Amino acid sequence: MDLSKTFDPQHPLVLVGCGRMGGAMARGWLERGLAPEAFVAIDPAGEPDFAPDARHFSSIDEMPRDLAPAAVILAVKPYMVGEAVEQLAHLAEKDPLVISVAAGIQLASLAAVFESSVRVMPNTPAAIGKGMMVAVAANAVSQAKKSLASDLMAAAGDVLWVDDESMMDAVTGVSGSGPAYIFALTEAMAAAGVVHGLPHDVASQLARQTIIGAAHLMEQSPHMTASELREQVTSPGGTTAAALDILRGEEGFGPLLEKAIGAATRRSQDLAK
User: Fold this and answer.
1) Across 52-65, average pLDDT
2) Which of 167, 25, 37 is nearest to 100 (CA)?
3) 75 marked as binding residue
C-alpha cells in the first residue's frame, strides 16, 4: 500500500511515543512514502530527529481536536496506555484504526473505546526492521483496516495475524521474549569457550558471529526447516553430533526451553490480570 495515498494533513497517521520502537516504525513509514505533513508525532522528549518536517506535540492534549486521524499507533509503556486512550477518546466517533504495541494490554481495554482496535506483540529486532510482529484484531475491525495495520507493521518486520487473543501469551513467550534467549545463548557459548581455553575476547567474537551467521543462513534458506539446516551441518560421529547429543538430551534445549517459555507465558498471563 502506498502510504502517501492513505494519509493526508487532515487525516494523518499519529504516533504516540517516539522511543526506539516507535522511531523505527516511523522511519519505515517515511521510507514507504508517508508524507511528513501527514504524520503527527507525540512525545514529551521533544521533536524526533527522524521526522523534522512532521508535526510534533509534547502531549496528546496539544494535538488539535479537529484532526481526524486515519490511524493512531500507541508505542508507549504499558502503564501509559490507559491514560493515552482516555485522552484520545474524543476521536472514537471518527473510528480511526488504533494499534497498540504495548506488552500485556488486552484488546478489550482498547476496543471499549475504539471499535477498530488491533493489539500487536513486537520484539526488539523491530527496532532495525527485523522484528516479528504478531497481531490480533477486535471483531469490528474491517478487512481494509487489517490490511492497513499489516502495511504499517511491516515497516518493522514480518507480520503474522492470530484469531485468538489467548495465543498472545505464548507468542510473548516465544517471539516477544525470544531475542533475550538468543543473547543468553551467545553469552553461554562464549563462557563455555573460555572454560575450554579460549581468551574471552576470542570466545565472545566466535559466539557472536556464529549466531549472526546462522541467523542470516536461516533467513536466506526459506525453503529449509531448522531441522534440515541442523542436519546439513551435522556429520554422524563428528564434533557437532557429540555436542548435540548433550543439547538434545533429556535435560537439553527441548525440556529447558519448554520450561522457560512456559514461565514467560504464565508471567504474561499474570501481567494481564
Assistant:
1) 90
2) 25
3) yes
The domain 177-272 having CATH identifier 3.40.50.720: the answer here is no
Distance (Å, whole) CA 266 – CA 273: 11
**Strand 39-42's sheet: what is its strand order?**
55-57, 39-42, 13-16, 71-74, 97-100, 117-121, 131-137, 157-161
DSSP strand pairing (39-42 vs 117-121): unpaired
- Predicted confidence (pLDDT) per residue in 166-198, tens digit: 999 999 999 999 999 999 999 999 999 999 999
Whether 77 and 102 have beta carbons less than 8 Å apart is answered as yes
Per CATH, the homologous superfamily of domain 3-166 is NAD(P)-binding Rossmann-like Domain (3.40.50.720)
Q: For the whole model, what pTM was predicted? A: 0.89
pLDDT in tens, 133-173: 999 999 999 999 999 999 999 988 999 999 999 999 999 99
The answer to whether 190 is annotated as binding is no
Q: Flag whether 77 is marked binding.
A: yes
Per the annotation, does 5 bind a ligand? no
Question: Average model confidence (pLDDT) for the chain?
Answer: 93
What residue spans define the domains of the chain? 3-166, 177-272
